[in-house]
Amino acid sequence: MARNAQRRARAPARPARVASGASRAQAAAQGNVRTIAWRQCFAGLVVGEALLLLFSNLGLLVANAAFGASGGQHADGGIVGVSTLIAVIAGAFLAAKLAGHHGLYQGIVVGCGFIVWGAIFQFLQEASVVASSISAGGHTLVDLGPMDMGSLISGDLLALFGGTVGGLLSGKR
Q1: What is the pLDDT of residue 136?
Q2: Where are the domains of the chain?
Q3: Residue 169 CB: number of other CB atoms within 10 A?
Q4: Phi, psi (5° rounding) for residue 20?
């Protein structure tokens, strides 16, 4: 019994759970709260992905109406890039506001979530192509095309930049 009491006395105190945004900010200032608010970051990611879907589809609709179906295909990179930037900023801003503290960190986590979700989506698309080739009885390699490292790196930097800006715009330090 005495040993357990000594261990508890030496163990660092766990951060207390805080309910409201104002008291959460006070607890963060005192160092009594975890840096990353995972639930709030997940909520920001979900809202950001929904906004990305909305903005990119509306942008492509407007481009197709203005330039015809072939014009929208040439404008696709710009539309998706701007839509992604706005969606990541909005999701990071929301996550930081909901968390009430460490806005920059919450924003970067949302940006990383966009990167991970994009990689999962790309993997599932390519796995679907390979699976359809195998189910069709194909015994040759499927050409998925070359990996575009420039777009990969610029897309990831765009997501991290948007997450940083959205987190900082929240004003939560």
Answers
A1: 84
A2: 37-138+150-169
A3: 16
A4: -90, 160
